[in-house]
Amino acid sequence: MATSSCSLDIGPKTLIGVGVGLVVAGGASYFLYRRYLQYRDAMPLKWRRVGTLQQINLFPVKSCAPVDLEAGVEYDCDVLGLSYEGIRDRTLMLLDESNTMVTARGYPHMLLIKSRKASVNGIVFSAPGMHDLELDFENLESPGQDLHTSVWGAPVDAMLCGERFNKWFSKFILKMETGLKLVHYPYPKAVKIINPRLKNMPHITQADSGTFNDATSYMLMNLSSVADLNTRIKNPVDPLQFRGNFELKADIDEPYAEDHWQWVRIGDKAVFRSVAPCTRCILPNINVNTAERDIDGEPLKTLRSFRLFNYSSPALGIHLGLRQPGRVKANDVVYVGEK
């Protein structure tokens, strides 16, 4: 009685042929995927004007006030963020004795710490009840020891600035002689990993992580969106409470239009990729002029009612990653890309 078999007589030549076919198919798929990424990440050829830059904010110290500069100055935009004559956005940060970052979320009066340009590569800090203190980025009094810290789960090393800065900031923030350390970002490029909350965003890259920024090296606020929010709350908020680098005055009042932008160009050269919405913590609830928290939890409470989407916190504003360096100034025209 004959028996049937399900086995196949597969010889070496057949196996080689199948292998070559899989490699070819896999290679084609990889090629097509690479082509897709190149198309997806290619800068637009067409740009549409949407408004102008009303305000540019550069924050030398994380969670403190923006630097006071003359109107009309041009800022450099590079991969680390905004800079002006040696002063760079969020290149300084405060740590506690356990090397944990300290922000205005816990110490709202940090927002009252101001800075102004004093010289090339130098700024002067001021705060209520404190004497002025000058810092020269070219002559930091560091003992040469780096500290290990992190920004929202992204590890980063930082360089001490010097004991006199530690004492000044400790005295104003903690009302103590010690307890805080002012540190400086020592690297010429971005070294932090992508903020863990944003790692699944398709357009973000590690190079977008900036200095001591929470998420990325740039953030844009549409003032039309802030104006719409202010119609929904009892006490209107200052756009600065959202701590954006760029404040856009739109040609056409269209709140939340920025949610749909993929590419942004400012002026003739600086080009940015919109890489993530900016989800909000409690910091916008603090008045930037008085450093007082809103007793009703606004504007965060209202934002949660209509801007939560699928995030754990409401979104307002967009995080940007630089794709082409350039220089920007107030009143520059802002464009969005069209493909």
- Tell me what portion of residues adopts beta-strand conformation: 25-35%
Could you list the spans in which at least 5 consecutive residues all have pLDDT below 50? 1-10
Sheet with the most strands? 7 strands, mixed, barrel
Query: Secondary-structure element sequence?
Result: HEEEEEEEEEEEEHEEHEEEHEEE
Present the secondary structure layout.
Layout: H1 12-40, E1 46-56, E2 67-68, E3 75-78, E4 81-84, E5 87-88, E6 92-95, E7 101-102, E8 114-119, E9 122-126, E10 133-136, E11 146-151, E12 154-160, H2 163-174, E13 181-184, E14 218-222, H3 223-230, E15 246-250, E16 263-266, E17 270-279, H4 300-306, E18 315-324, E19 326-328, E20 333-338
Parallel strand pairs: 2-8, 14-15
Antiparallel strand pairs: 1-15, 1-20, 3-4, 3-19, 4-5, 6-7, 6-13, 8-9, 9-10, 11-12, 12-13, 14-18, 16-17, 16-20, 17-18
What are the defining features of this structure?
339 residues; alpha+beta; 7-stranded mixed barrel; 5-stranded antiparallel sheet; 4 helices; 17% helix; disordered N terminus
Walk me through what this model shows:
This protein is of the alpha+beta class. The chain contains four helices and 20 strands. Strands 1-15-14-18-17-16-20 form a seven-stranded mixed β-barrel. The protein has a five-stranded antiparallel β-sheet with strand order 7-6-13-12-11. A hairpin with a 2-residue loop joins strand 11 and strand 12. The model is unreliable at 1-10 (pLDDT under 50).
